[in-house]
Amino acid sequence: MLVTVEGIVIGKRDIGENNCFLDILTNGYGVIEATAHGVRKINSKNASSVGLFSYSRLCFNKTGLRYTLNSAEPIRSFFGLSSDIKKFSLAIYMADIIKYTSTSEQNGEDMLRFFAITLYELEKENSDCDIIKAVFEFRIASMLGFLPDLRACRCCGQYINGKMFFSADENNLVCYQCSVSDEKNEDLVELMPDMLHTLRFVTYSDVKRVYGFTLKGATKNAFTSFSEEYLLKHLGRGFSTLEYYKNLCVNI
Question: Beta strand pairing status for 164-167 and 19-26?
């Protein structure tokens, strides 16, 4: 049967001279692998719509769980990322996270929207890769089911009550007074006010506004480290594309 979806190409592998496999984050079927015949030909009508990080409207022949590209119409190209090796490498890392955590035949509308907004922000001329990476990591962790409870102290219910700590074991907040009286032996990380505000903003803001802030200095460094550690801890693995990106940042 024919199915039509919107999607972003997040992976591409060549088959022979003219064909390729596509990994596509779609709004209706999650991440799917599709066969695209002839798209590597110079005169292919679909070539521009299935480049890496192209956002397109795609029509497939679907047989069971197998997809074959029938036609494609471009919606938005993020081709500009390819001209900046740092941004392009970061986008590859983020695509790896999506491929690892998303499955086929599930609704991917929220993920597709979030990733499209992320690529749009990343492609901007003066974008801050460190902030975009950290926001993506922390927000996607929440979307994957690892939503932290940052509303208030878990014991006394205070929004702010002196020093506030994050429990890495329970993914929630506890104030200093409650942590002293609590008999739990757990890993607590103090969150400075600016850091706590940032984490709350990224967790609870509408996705359209989630990149609408800037950070500098110690708070920026703390946020970027915290977000990466939080996501990788819950996924239980690292990514070679992350290591490549970090090595690239050191050498640039």
Answer: unpaired
What SS3 class is residue 155? Answer: coil
**Listed residue (7, 112, 110) closest to 49, CA to CA:** 7
In angstroms, rounded to a whole number, what is the distance separating the alpha carbons of residues 225 and 166? Answer: 14
Report pLDDT for 67.
93
Query: How many angstroms separate the CA atoms of 248 and 74, rounded?
Result: 31
Judge contact between 41 and 145, C-beta under 8 A. no
Q: Which residue has the tokens 């400075």?
A: 192
Give pLDDT, residue 182.
75
Which tokens in the block code for residue 65? Answer: 């769980």
Give the mean model confidence (pLDDT) for residues 219-223: 97
Q: What is the pTM of this model?
A: 0.94
User: In this predicted model, which residue has the larger pLDDT, 132 or 1?
Assistant: 132
Instruction: Tell how strand 164-167 and strand 66-77 pair up.
Output: unpaired
Whole-number Å distance between alpha carbons of 34 and 20: 8
Q: Within a 10 A sphere around the Cβ of 150, how many other Cβ atoms? A: 21
SS (H, E, C) 170-188: CCEEEEHHHHHHCCCCCCE
The residues facing 61 across adjacent strands are 2, 68
Amino acid identity of residue 197, one-letter, is H
Between CA 50 and CA 72 the distance in angstroms is 7
Whether 74 and 53 have beta carbons less than 8 Å apart is answered as no
